[in-house]
Design brief:
The chain is mostly helical. 72% of the residues lie in helices and 0% in strands. It has helices at 2-18, 21-28, 33-60, 64-77, 87-98, 102-106, 112-126, 130-142, 144-158, 166-187, 193-215. α1 (2-18) runs parallel beside α11, α8 (130-142) runs antiparallel to α10 and α9 packs antiparallel against α10 (166-187).
Length: 239
Amino acid sequence: MFVSEVRKQVEGSLDEVRNHPLVASAAAGTLPRDAAHRWVFCAGRESRSFPWILRELLAWTDDDKVRRILQENLDDELGSGDPRHAHFLHYLHLLDGLGVAREEFDTYTERAGITLALSLAFNVAKSRSTGRAIGYMLVNEAMTPVTYNAARQALTRHHPELRTDFFDLHIEVDDQHVAALYEAVEALPDDEERDLRFGIALGRRGMEILLDEAYGVFDAHIEPLRITDERWNPLSDLR
């Protein structure tokens, strides 16, 4: 019964992301080319950091089943012993197929979306809460069919010549990871339930904020806002 309720919460998170404007626009065939390219930049930046997150989780996790799942995930991310097949490099190969210079990825200025999403992931990794970590990873990887299929629709619309197994590969691998994570959910003690559900909520937030950046929500202001700046003081005009 507990796992069934967790699945419902994860499915609810997936439904929320399906309604995100970027995903909905991709499905409708109206997502602009720049936004589709920027999704690759955002997802690629996240992918580049993901092995670090997994290593941080492995540093303190003492549950054998969870450690096995995390290690298998990390091995996949790093190319299963072959650095040429590291997942991060897949994004660079995709850019090659799109005719987008890799320099555009390297010089892309991260907005608040990537900053917040990665900060959230890093802090989950440092939380030392198994339930929170599993919940976060569960929804983060269960999202792959939703977000990658949306990106495929958008990118192939703008690049009908594109031929790649990028999307199918990542969907297939993450489906396997999700199945393993549900095995870990079954083994969690009852006192982890609250943290597990909280982790699922955090995973959805992280994905949504990443999609927000790709969609252009944070384009109006790139520099971090500081509440000590005089211009953000609501009383400054009264002096």
